Amino acid sequence: MSVDTAKEPQGDVVSSGPGGLEVQPAPHLTDPITTRRLMLDVIIALIPAFLASLVFFQWNSLRVLALCLIGCLATEYLFNRVRNKPNSLSDLSAVVTAIILAFSLPPTLPWFAVLMGAIVAIALGKMFFGGLGQNIFNPAMVGRAFLMVTFASLMTTWVAPAAEPGPPVPTDRVEAVTAATPLAQIKPGDPERPLPETWRLFVGRTAGSLGETSVIALLIGAAYLLIRRTIDWTIPFGMLGAALAFAAIAYLAAPGKFANPMFHLGAGSLVFGAFFIATDLVTSPLSKSGRVVFGAGCGVLTMVIRQFGTYPEGVMFSILMMNALAPLIGRWMRPTPLGGKARG
Amino acid sequence: MITNTIKSKLTNKKVFPRGVHPHDFKEQTRDRAIEAVPWPKEVVIPFQQHIGAPAQPTVKPRQEVKRGEVIGTAGGFVSAPVHASVDGKTGPLTTVLTPVGTRVSAVPVQTAEISQEQLEQDLKDFLQPQGPVKPADLIEPEAIVKAAAEAGLVGMGGATFPTHVKLKVSPERKIDTVVLNGSECEPYLTADDRLMREASGTVVRGLMLAMRAVGAPRGVIAIEDNKPEAIAAMRQAAAGYPSVEVAVCAAKYPMGGERQLIPAVLNRVIPTGGLPLDVGVVVVNVATSLALAHAVDRSRPAITRVLTLTGAVHRPGNYYVAIGTPLSHVIEHAGGLKDDAAEVILGGPMMGVTMPDLSTPVTKGTSGITVLTRDQVVRRQETACIRCGRCVDHCPLKLMPTKISQAVKHRDLELAKAYDLMACCECGCCSYVCPAGIPVVQYIKSGKAAEMRRRAREKAEAAKKA
Q1: Which residues pair with B283 in a beta bridge?
Q2: B437–A339 C-beta distance less than 8 A
């Protein structure tokens, strides 16, 4: 509300100014961090992992990401258009969803599957709930879960990364060499093959989803997010801590049966999930203690699925399950006000 | 939080958990010595400048009044008298707009002439009064409370709670510490900083009197570490008093809130809905302490105060002003508003209130006038809450601001109360950090107001039945 103060008796002072004084509620200063800036930070933090995926999966990486972006942005745009809501693309949250989804898909996934996943992620994962901030489940993981159920075999066909040392493959016959992911290799029934060395897991030169393989690239991005305070330590600490503790206990109890904790840290999407998926602001609890519990739940469920379930990887399901529990955790883990609850 | 404790141990600075770190903008005025503002042609003195019942006017129109003369008597125990702040002649009663948006009755006084020398002498006497004073221990506590009541003292940090009510502690309460609040955590404001530097002796004297009044054996002067000169000055002034110590606090908003200051300095937590009294503490602001020294030693009422005028004005600084002086007069004295001035705030930018009308007078609680520029006040569009939890992480009272504000937004007062609506101290950290631009604290304030109205209604209905 702007008030014309020139009419006031002491108007001479004011009229030398701009002619109208603003009235608005305190506080009159704000932190420069906006929703858009938070999303931009996540996008920046995902660049190293994207570069790594370009090296390992080459043009497939670009293809999947582009398709996800098209699918996500178009869906959000159309939803807002149809519902007569203001266009929300500029908050960049759909871009983040697109990148996270792309990074969690196999590089060779056909275009129609990628596109369907992207549409479902935004439509079912976010817009059906009322848009940003209203959704219960991580949109990217909703899209991925949909693909997992609909295109089970396509979603579990993996290629070896480029420049994989081995026998030369005649390029006119096959596009790429199929290969098992490190996690699939430790599942029973998989042909006995030597596990990749741990260093290779951390560099990311293994078969796997687009952006999950290079732990080092992911950690560079994660460090950026932590320094910028876009995310805090709670969820990654809870998730990695619980997963590693679980893996360590299992490994010590039966070293022949279970892989060592460092393998679990480097393989699959544990690091990607801990820093970039589970930390989704919308779908995690509000309080610090709640976030630690939420992260720990993700970590434990991931390891349960990895070690006892039929799926080789459990990050997606564990996060979706904990998303469902997040409102309850929020209710249980409410911070007590300083000075205690008010009486009466 | 653990990190806070470690930080506090390492730096030996007092700190409370959570809160925010806005840029303090104090560089604009911190080195500007207190300067007396000449009397305006007319002051307008409101009869309510405090929490509690308004004062009862005792003057007629066209009556000659002397500076310091009572023009309104206290309207109850929780109330304060009002005094003429200038020599002059009263006009017909009028009303003025208060920062909370209500109108209160006030009396205009046509001021007599005052020479520049008189003005400067008055400021000198205000900062460093000369002449012998009785040791605080030889003054009866009741006499101190009485002097505070007669002088119309109120909390000059902005809360404006009548000081005599605060100092009149029932005998079964044991108060062991008086905390002198010199934290001045609001960005931009430096008036308390200047008072501690230029009037350190008088401020410490006030603290000794407050300690005597409430029977506290210990005094703690709490100052944020962004005021090193004030820390040095107060240390020196307190050197002769073994019962008084200086506590250096980390600069953090809202350090000056009682619920943050007491845990930081004394490691005691005020129970929700309670008062500092409940943990044996009384907190007194720097300007109030100075005014208390004047009230007791020289029977001088609260008729002037020091305030910071800062931001988009041509000559920002710390000004010594007669109560009732219109904001416009102070601003004019400081060279006027700059062209890009967009918002005039009574107080600091975190909790202050914007005033559209510059004829509003300076009152006992006006600690500053902050003028923000057009670039600074760009209002953010309110977008959806993304449940990021920043308001929860920064709330110094450990509340869940977004939950409360959403409940208020959906008119569910019961749910808001379940999330401790009434415990909120309205510091505004939640709005400050909200990336979605949600005026969180504004929703909470309106929820509190709705609850207060409901309680009043309930009380009225109960009274009707009885």
Answers
A1: B179
A2: no
Q: Considering all CA atoms of chain B, what is the largest pairwise distance in Å, rounded to the nearest integer? A: 64
Which of A99, A18, A20 has the alpha carbon at shortest distance from A62? Answer: A99
The Cα B123–Cα B198 span in angstroms is 11
Query: Rounded to an integer, what distance in angstroms lies between the CA atom of residue B397 and that of residue B400?
Result: 9
Closest residue, chain A, to B21 (C-alpha): A31
Nearest to A93 by CA among A150, A34, A53: A34
Identify which of B259, B329, B386 has the shortest CB distance to residue A133.
Answer: B386
Cβ–Cβ gap A22/B380 under 8 Å? no
- Across the interface, whether the CB atoms of A18 and B374 are under 8 A apart is answered yes
CA B356 to chain centre: 21
For residue B64 the two structure tokens come to 């000659």
* Residue pLDDT, tens place only, B162-206: 999 999 988 888 999 999 999 999 999 999 999 999 999 999 999
Check if the beta carbon of residue B225 is closer than 8 Å to that of residue B231: yes
Spans of all domains in chain B: 2-298, 390-465
Contact A16 B442 (CB under 8 A): no
φ, ψ of residue B62 in degrees (nearest 5): 60, 35
CB B303 within 8 A of CB B69: no
Cβ atoms of B349 and A27 closer than 8 Å: yes
Q: Which backbone phi and psi does B209 adopt, to 5 degrees?
A: -65, -40
Start-end of H helices in B186-299:
191-198, 200-214, 228-237, 258-266, 286-298
Q: How many Å apart are CA B61 and CA B109, to the nearest integer? A: 9
Secondary structure of chain A: what % helix, strand, coil (to 5)?
55, 0, 40
Tens place of pLDDT per residue across chain B (466 aa): 456 566 666 677 899 999 999 999 999 999 999 999 999 999 999 999 988 888 999 998 899 999 999 999 988 889 999 999 999 999 999 998 877 778 899 999 999 988 999 999 999 999 999 888 889 889 999 999 999 999 999 999 878 899 999 999 888 889 999 999 999 999 999 999 999 999 999 999 999 999 999 999 999 999 999 999 999 999 999 998 999 999 999 999 999 999 999 999 999 999 998 999 999 999 999 999 999 999 999 999 999 999 999 999 999 999 999 999 999 999 999 999 999 999 999 999 999 999 888 989 999 999 999 999 988 887 778 889 999 999 999 999 999 999 999 999 999 999 999 999 999 999 999 999 999 999 999 999 999 999 999 999 999 999 888 7
CATH class, range B2-298: alpha beta
- What's the alpha-carbon Rg for chain B, to the nearest Å? 22
Chain B residues with beta carbon closer than 8 angstroms to that of A234: none
Q: Which residues of A touch B370 (CB under 8 A)?
A: 28
Q: What's the gap in Å between the CA of A326 and the closest CA on chain B?
A: 11
Distance CA B203, CA B126 (A): 11
Neighbours of A44 (CB within 10 A): 14
Residue B47 to residue B22: CA distance in whole angstroms: 35
First to last CA, chain A: 39
In this predicted complex, what is the ipTM?
Answer: 0.84
Alpha-helix residue ranges (DSSP H) falling in B128-199: 141-150, 163-167, 191-198
Give the Cβ contact number of residue A194 at 10 Å: 6
In terms of phi and psi (left: phi > 0; alpha: psi -120 to 50; beta: otherwise), the region of B101 is left
CB A275 within 8 A of CB A218: yes
Q: Following CA atoms B320, B326, B327, B329 in sequence, which dihedral angle do they give, to the nearest 10 degrees?
A: -70
- Rounded to an integer, what distance in angstroms lies between the CA atom of residue B451 and that of residue A112? 55
State pTM to two decimals.
Answer: 0.88
Instruction: Please give the Cα distance from A81 to A96 (Å, whole number).
Output: 20
Mean pLDDT score of chain B, rounded to an integer?
A: 92
Beta bridge partners of B368: B308
Tokens coding B390: 């920043």
